[in-house]
Design goal:
- The structure is a single chain.
- By secondary structure, this protein is mostly helical.
- Among the domains are: 160-231, Tetratricopeptide repeat domain (Serine Threonine Protein Phosphatase 5, Tetratricopeptide repeat); 233-304, no CATH class.
- The protein is built from 16 helices and two strands.
- It has helices spanning 20-34, 38-50, 54-66, 74-85, 90-102, 110-121, 126-138, 146-157, 162-174, 182-193, 198-210, 218-229, 234-246, 254-266, 270-282, 285-303, and strands spanning 2-6, 9-13.
- Strand 1 (2-6) and strand 2 form a beta hairpin.
- Helix 14 (254-266) runs antiparallel to helix 15.
- The radius of gyration is 23 Å and the shape is globular.
Length: 304
């Protein structure tokens, strides 16, 4: 059983062993990686990769991409992903697409990103299917086609990919590529949100707040906003501030509202900055100061 590295997670794929020596190098490399000895893992994977081991080539790509045991080097990451991708390793195909999409180690090229995502998606790899859906959705490397986006999001979502479930929910929410259907949107957002995907948690909170696709329930809206906000999702932090400002599902508290806007603004939310500016023009200096201090405490607590 071959162990393929994907960020901090470890995926298993069955591949033929090139030789006993290569197999031992690979397995020893994986054990070293799992023990946190990335330098040793790199050296052992290198032995296996030079003998043509696809798993070792892929794993070296991950290590160079993430700077594990070696200085981060996107050029080397691309080189090793390409070795593995050219022999059809699905995750290497997908990662090569990501490198082209983001211009990491290669000039940014949406057409080539689309090509690699397409090849990976057709193997059934769910995160590649989601990535291909994004390309169709955004019109990157291919003419924009919301129906094709829905097709690929659905294939990945039905396999349980949280991002694809959220994206499919958004398509139903906004009526892109499918008839607008808030109930279907809520269904897919929930599946994603229950896996901990912050964007879906926030969007499900929006539906409970508005009563679209679900029975209006401010307590449920707050629950999902809090879960997303706790992951640092700025829009959910903004929404929590709005709930406190209006007293929806909570006792009205301008202090708490301002505090959550401080947190959201710290995470780059422009609307939170606008809300803070408007509050500063109409609320008392003491209230603003207390809200600022509370927001600072929230930020400090998140960093501990």
């Amino acid at each position: 059983m071959k162990h393929f590295l994907r960020c901090s997670s470890l995926l298993l794929i069955l591949l033929a062993l090139v030789s006993v020596v290569v197999a031992d190098s690979f397995d020893d490399g994986f054990q070293a990686y799992n023990a946190g000895d990335y330098k040793k893992a790199h050296d052992l994977f290198l032995v296996a990769a030079e003998e043509g081991d696809l798993g070792a080539q892929y794993n070296l790509g991950v290590m160079y991409r993430d700077g594990l045991g070696v200085p981060q080097n996107y050029n080397e990451a691309v080189r090793y992903f390409r070795m593995s991708a050219e022999d059809g390793v699905d995750m290497a195909l997908n990662n090569l697409g990501i490198m082209y999409k983001n211009g990491l180690g290669v000039p940014q090229h949406y057409g080539k990103a689309f090509m690699w995502f397409d090849e990976a998606a057709r193997t059934g790899l769910m995160n590649a299917q989601n990535n291909l859906g994004v390309m169709y959705h955004e019109g990157h490397g291919v003419p924009q086609d919301h129906k094709q986006a829905v097709k690929w999001y659905r294939l990945a979502a039905e396999q349980g990919d949280a991002q694809a479930q959220s994206n499919l929910g958004m398509m139903y929410d906004e009526g892109q590529g499918v008839a607008q259907d808030p109930e279907e949107a809520a269904k897919w957002y929930r599946l994603s949100a229950e896996q901990g995907y912050a964007k879906a948690q926030n969007n499900l909170g929006d539906l409970y707040r508005s009563g679209l696709g679900v029975e209006q329930d401010y307590d449920e809206a707050l629950k999902w906003y809090r879960l997303a906000a706790g992951q640092g999702y700025a829009e959910a932090q903004l929404n929590l501030g709005d709930m406190y400002e209006k007293g929806l599902g909570v006792h009205q508290s301008y202090e708490d509202a301002y505090a959550w806007w401080v947190v959201a603004a710290e995470n780059g939310d422009e609307m939170a900055e606008i809300n803070m500016k408007n509050a500063q023009e109409s609320w008392s200096e003491g209230l603003i100061e207390r809200g600022q201090n509370l927001g600072s405490e929230f930020i400090k607590g998140a960093g501990d």
